Amino acid sequence: MALTNKVTIVTGAARGIGLAIARRFVEDGAKVVMSDVNDEAGEAAEADLKALGEVTYVHCDVSERLDVRNLIAAAIDTYGDVDVLINNAGIVSPGDILTIDEAEFDRVLNINLKGSFLCGQAVARHMVDRVKNGGPAGAIVNMSSVNAVFGLHTQLPYTVSKGGVNQLTKAMAVALAPHGIRVNAIGPGSIMTDMLASVNDDPAARARILSRTPMARIGEPREIASIAAFLADEGASYVTGQTVYADGGRLPLNYTVDVPEE
């Protein structure tokens, strides 16, 4: 398979979309380095995925340059190289322009946007050096959101950070294209992660989500993992600087749809 033996770093991999991506890549034969700040969940995920293939867990706060440096070093020490980076680590924090605290705004942007920059820069420098020495190029996939496009006023720092991720993706892609390194992003819509699990017990909340989702269902983490696998392998060899939205048709919709009663 195209990802066989590809050394892949997945940040924010202890749960949710990150864990689904790590699982998909391990299943496809990649050597996966998972990182997170939730060590208990990360180590449990590592133990689970080891039954499927080569995987290791490394603690990393992506907003801290030293942690990022140690993450890249661990990947190289363990598997000898870095072929793919999945910048998935991210958080949310509610608040609009009138209520959000400055420290909380900084915290979200430091993880969601600065973290993608720090990891992306470190991996890109390694990949460029490898290309200059006659080695193959690699691929970087950032995690954006439909809220990079929508003005979600109740999640101001998250919305701003994901808009920044889109622009970071474009600028990285243009800068790294001469080296053959591809950079793309994924923009999920409503995906059934821990953050959305509560809607299953709240019919009104579920109806609100489905009313803006033409495909009339909430997405699954494995569906985002499939896009990450495509963008990382040679099947996407002429794709760079793009954000692929997986949102059940939400972005093209400029109204709400009727939701059948359950």
From TrEMBL:
InterPro entries: KR_dom, NAD(P)-bd_dom_sf, Sc_DH/Rdtase_CS, SDR_fam
GO BP field: fatty acid biosynthetic process
Keyword Cell membrane: no
SMART domains assigned: PKS_KR
Every Ketoreductase domain range: 6-189
GO molecular function terms listed in the Swiss-Prot or TrEMBL record: oxidoreductase activity, acting on the CH-OH group of donors, NAD or NADP as acceptor; quinone binding
Any Pfam family matching the protein: adh_short_C2
Keywords from the named record: Oxidoreductase
Keyword Translocase (UniProt): no
Signal peptide (from-to): none
Gene3D superfamilies from the UniProt entry: NAD(P)-binding Rossmann-like Domain
Family: Belongs to the short-chain dehydrogenases/reductases (SDR) family.
Protein known as: NAD(P)-dependent dehydrogenase (Short-subunit alcohol dehydrogenase family)
